[in-house]
């Protein structure tokens, strides 16, 4: 391992720029995934202002929760991808213990489906 004081400022800046590029790219990929889901749900356009619904998206994970630059890149990418009238209706919220809740929902769904098949 190279001692910290032996790494040039130029190399340190290069590493920071590479990390920034990777972060921005991953946020854009995440935004594309969110857009795909919104399109599947039909929430990527507003046909009638009276029927305008708010869409809340729960996001869990330390990258979104603790790295504010990622969050900013994600919001910026969504703002680019969504029409101007739709973006304000999309609300990203931090989910707490989302993976645990998701696992419980899947288990409950499986249990209900299994009971229906078995007639119980």
* Helix-strand category: mainly alpha
Which word captures the global form?
A: flat
Tell me the major beta sheet.
Answer: 2 strands, parallel
Number of strands: 2
Quote the average pLDDT.
84
Question: What are the segments in which pLDDT stays under 50 over at least 5 consecutive residues?
Answer: none
What Rg do the Cα atoms give?
20 Å
Q: End-to-end span in angstroms?
A: 62 Å
Proportion in helices: 55-70%
Order of helices and strands: HEHHEH
β-sheet strand percentage? 5-15%
Cross-sheet strand order for the largest sheet: 1-2
By oligomeric state, this entry counts as single chain
Number of DSSP helical runs = 4
Provide an overview of this structure.
The protein has about 120 residues and is mainly alpha-helical. It is about 60% helix and about 10% strand. It is built from four helices and two strands. It has helices at about 10-40, 60-65, 70-80, 100-120, and strands at about 55-60, 90-95. A two-stranded parallel sheet has the order 1-2. The radius of gyration is 20 Å and the shape is flat. The termini are far apart. About 10% of the residues are buried. The model has no long low-confidence stretch (mean pLDDT about 85).
């Amino acid at each position: 391992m190279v001692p910290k004081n032996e790494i040039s400022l130029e190399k340190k800046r290069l590493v920071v720029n590479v990390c920034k590029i990777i972060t921005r790219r991953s946020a854009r990929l995440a935004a594309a995934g969110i857009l795909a889901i919104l399109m599947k749900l039909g929430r990527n356009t507003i046909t009638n202002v009276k029927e305008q619904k708010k869409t809340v998206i729960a996001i869990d994970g330390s990258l979104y929760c603790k790295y504010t630059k990622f969050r900013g890149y994600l919001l910026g990418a969504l703002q680019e991808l969504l029409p101007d009238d739709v973006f304000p209706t999309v609300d990203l919220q931090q989910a707490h213990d989302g993976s645990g809740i998701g696992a419980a929902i899947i288990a409950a769904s499986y249990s209900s489906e299994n009971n229906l098949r078995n007639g119980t």
